[in-house]
Each structure stands twice: as structure tokens, then as C-alpha cells.
Protein: Endonuclease III
Amino acid sequence: MNLERRRSFFELLKANNPQPTTELEYSSPFELLIAVLLSAQATDVSVNKGTRKLFKIANTPQALLNLGEEGVRPYIQHIGLFRTKGKHIQETCKILLEQHQGEVPRTREALEALPGVGRKTANVILNTAFGEPTIAVDTHIFRVSNRTGLAPGKDVVMVEAQLMKRVPKEFLQDAHHWLILHGRYTCTARNPHCQECIVEPLCRFKQKTGKGKVRGDI
Structure:
């Protein structure tokens, strides 16, 4: 996909959704960090269900640390891997208090040093909480990037590198949210809504059909 088509691709996404944002509910960088930690292999809906109640009683590192794993568990036990995530939350809160004055760090290195935080989570925090032009490649963004020809790659690291090079600078800040929402609701894994897709004329996915069915999956 050449530069002109890439620019048109994002102009269409922007026109459809001028101010995209995460579907995770949060009111501070710390709340976002906890929500993203919980969202691994879980839906935003399930995370929001737990954090709505949890954050009302504990939404700071010290408050969550005081609550402890047992105290946090009732709010997150419906979320996959809740035991591991509960442990990571406690360890993360301790590190934030001991090393960062209770604040969420603003560097990739410091973020990735937190338990349960990998490159994808760090990118989400940097982009959504701190306005950095990063792209966190999840399964949705990986699929959209490969299907459309926007930024093909064999793994998430390659796709991220391609996106950082190929997304026009004026769209880089919001590209993460446009792509994830497009993959979540339109360019779905097995039954993409090709007939309703606003970027379909620019898409190079050869397996799409008139009914929006696909032969195979990415």
C-alpha cells in the first residue's frame, strides 16, 4: 500500500471516528495501568465490570497494596488468569511506591520493568495515558495490518515496526485506537463485515467475498 493509499486509509478512519480512544474505563494513568494489566486475554467489558467497583474503594498504589491479593480477588475473579494478575498488581504497586513515588513511569524501560507489563502494555500506557505516538500491536491490529496490506509482517514486532514507518505522521497518535476498533468490530477474524467497511476499496485482502466471508483466517 503506497503513501497515498495509506493516507486515504486513515483519512477514512478519522472521518468515521474523529476522536478514538480505549474502551477501558479509567480516570488516571494508574487506573489505566491496572486495567491494561487485567485486560490480557480478557475483554474490555469484563475488565470494566471489575474495575468500576474496585476503583471506587482503591485506585492508588497504596490503597491497592493495603487491600492485598485477597481483597482484590472478589473484583477480578471473573477475569481470566486473575490469580496471576492479582499478584502482578500487588508487585507493581509496591514498585511504584518504592521506585517512582507512587506515579506511573513515563519511559518504556521503567514500564516494562513492572510485573506483567510487556511491550504491548507499555505502548498502550505511553500512547493513551501520556500521548506518545506508539502502537500496541494486538491480534486485531496484527490482523488488520496484514489483511489490508497496510503493514504486513510475520510477528507483532515486525508489524509494529512497519506501522511506525508507514503510518503518516499526522495519524500516528490515534492509529492504535483506529486499528484496534476496526479489527474488533469490522475486520473481524472469521466473518469480516467487508460490505460495511469504509476502507474496503483500499483493502488488498484477496480472500474476501461479496458476503464478507473469508476462506481461512489470520
Residues 29-130 form a domain with the Endonuclease III; domain 1 fold (CATH 1.10.340.30). The two ends are 18 Å apart (CA to CA).
